Amino acid sequence: MATILVTGSSDGIGRHTAATLVDGGHRVVLHARDDRRAGDARAAVPGAAAVVVGDLASLAQTRDLARQAADLAPFDVVVHNAGVGGGQDAPVLTEDGLERIFQVNTLAPYLLTALLPAPARLIYLTSGLEAGGRARLDDLQWRGRAWDGMQAYSDSKLYDVMLAFAVARRWPGTFSNAVDPGWIRTRMGGPGATDDLPEGSETQVWLATSAAPEATVTGRYFKRRRQLRANPQAYDESLQEDLLGICADLTGVKLPA
After folding, report:
1. Can you tell me the distance from the alpha carbon of 157 to that of 163, in angstroms, rounded to the nearest whole number?
2. Annotated catalytic, 157?
3. Per residue in 176-198, pLDDT tens?
4. In sequence order, what are the residues at sequence separation of 6 or more whose Cβ sits closer than 8 angstroms to the Cβ of residue 245?
5. Is 153 known to be catalytic?
C-alpha cells in the first residue's frame, strides 16, 4: 500500500485518479480549493484518508496546504494534478499580483515540491499543448506582450514538463515524470473532448503504483503509458535552472538539493 497525495482531486481527472487509487487499496489524501469542494471530494471518494484544503492561486494558502500535507506525510507519491485552463480574455492577477495560470499551474507545484519531503515518485500533469509552449522566462506575467490565454496555458504546461525534468535531474532518488492525460471530457476539457476519464487517469495510476521497469524511470514524458518526446525546450538544463531560480525568487523557497 502506498500513501499518495493527489492535488485538485475534488472533480475531474484528479478525482478519478484518487478514486482508482483508493479502489486499489492505497492510502490517498485528497486536495480541494476550499471547504465546499472538500466536502464534494469526501462524498465522491469516501475511502480517502483525508482532505487538505488550499487555493493554489494564493502563495499563503499553498504554504498552509503544504503544512497540512506534511502532517500526513511521508508520501510515497505526489500527483500534481491541479490546474486551470486558458480561456480568459485578459490576464487575471492573484492576490500575490501574479498571473493566475502561471501561479496555479506551475508556481504552486514548484512550491509544494520544495516544501514537502521528497517522495519516491512525483507526477506532474501537463498537456499536449506543451508542444506549442514558449519558454518566455523574461515575461512570465505577460506584462510586456499582448495577452493570449491559450498561449499562457501552453506555456505553463511546458514549464510543468521542465519542472518534472529538473527535479528528476536534481533528485536522483525520486522518479519524477510528466504526463499528458489527453483531451478528457471534464468541466475543463469540455463536452467536445475526445477521451473519457479512465483514459485520463490511467497513466498517473500506473506511474504511481507499478513496479514494472517501464514505470520506474525518471525524467520522462508520458501519454497512455508510452514515452514521448516533449517540447525541445523542456530538455534545456539552462532553461530549467532559470525557471527554478525564478520560482525560488517568487516564493522565497529554494528547491532543496
Report:
1. 10
2. yes
3. 999 999 766 566 655 666 567 77
4. none
5. yes
